[in-house]
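Sequence in, structure out. First:
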Amino acid sequence: MTVRKPAWLKVKYTVNDDFRELREIVHQHNLHTVCEEARCPNQGECWRRRTATLMILGNTCTRNCRFCAIGNGQLPTPDPSEPQNVGNAVNLMGLKYVVITSVTRDDLPDGGADHWAKTIQEIRRQNPDCKIEVLIPDFNGDVVSLEMVLKEKPDVLGHNLETIQRLYPNARPQADYQQSLTVLKNAKERGAVTKTGIMVGLGETQKDILNLMQDARQVNCDIFTAGQYLQPTKNHLPVNRFVTPDEFKQIELMGLKMGFRSVMAGPLVRSSYHAEELL
């Protein structure tokens, strides 16, 4: 049975000149955005504000998370011109803060870490005053790959837990909860400002969320986000329930009480939503 969206999740999708210009820059440089690929409900708002989350290493993932709209299929060879194109696009957009993410590329020996490093280098070369937040995959737990990214000193290192441990076999069968926590732990131990995020409404309880947040704090994660899961297609996991704005407020308060440096929780919050404000 389909659960109807409540009023607080209804988004008015409008465009303006900034939206159109940003879309043209992205497409002219053959770039992907998680805004489009993951069908983010905030695309209209963010693009009108000239902010976007750029996605590198193609738009095809080696994993099959049952909540994610990003597709599987033939995996492209990493485009050697992509780092330069990303740097140029950031320049044309006039960004002072950029979020970069990627699909998971388990087919590559380093999980795409070298490509990540080159992308950060190019953004910095062309935009020396721009802050860079990266939202990385787990690199299959490989510390060498993680260190390749950290060597470029991103301003924020994000890696999402996505959901509670109990739901991993159903929602993220090719991922590992403890491994993701270890990614955050290793990044923090190497001096990074760390960030993680989850979706709610997949069948977790408030106690489950609290336990996950405590796990994240135990590895000294700095920034935490939580948003409502929305089913991308009928082939994805169904929404178990819609979490109320009051419950999201409680998540924020709990997180701040636990010691997170910043917390943002709300029905339409995504990990990169208002990222600069969170930092």
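Second:
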Amino acid sequence: MAKTIKQNRRLKPDWLKIKVPMGKTYIGVKEIIKKHQLNTICTSGHCPNVEDCWGRGTATLMILGDVCTRACRFCNVKTGIPSKVDFDEPRRVAESVKLLKLKHVVLTSVDRDDLEDGGAAIWAETINRIKAEMPQTTIEALIGDFQGDFQDLKTVMESHPDVLSHNMETVRRLTPKLRSKAKYDTSLEVIKNISKFGLVSKSGIMVGVGETQEEVFNTMDDLRKSDCKVLTIGQYLQPGGWNFDVVEYIHPNVFEIYRKAGINKGFRHVESSPLVRSSYHAEKHIH
């Protein structure tokens, strides 16, 4: 039986305690991001690894605004009717990557189901602009499902990011409870198409939301059938009162079981520990 701890919002286990970001590098990056009106999932998602990543020259920038058209139960990003597309955003993002001297950048976005192409054209332009400004900077694109539209996915794939990622988020049984619109099989198809295109494919899941170990292993198998190369597994932490409740705090020993199982199943790289998020150590996932 897996070692777990029932949720206690007033007392998290020791392995989930993190220090408040205070370093000089963190403060410098934060000031640049604010000055250039950039959105980052590092801050909006309350990522526990923000100081570590920014200190290593890695950041996760969120494009296409900060309002999502979906309302997933696990997510802290604002939901509603987004503002109009900012066509100057790709330029600002590229210039900021240069100013921040990022060695590796992870791009993600809100879901833009209101747009005909789901924002694919802005995705491609942003990646191409970064390549032009900072050819030595490696890029991971963490995309949504584009409602299963292959042409929109192809638009992004043809910009050739170093890693193209799409998160499953959870196991099949819990997908309807946590994800407002995305479907488990649609996400698998996105990963499959990324792999067939020849890019490094990557996905991530959260645990502690009521899944069983067998369901986690089954999700790994489904991803490997889609030739997914990189997998991240981290503890779900409830970001707000309306979000899905944490069911369990998974013990670090179980995360190590998952890591070893993933390697044995054929993943090229597996990041699995309580504080792992999809962009954690992302620069290692390229090769």
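Remark: The chain is about 35% helix and 15% strand.
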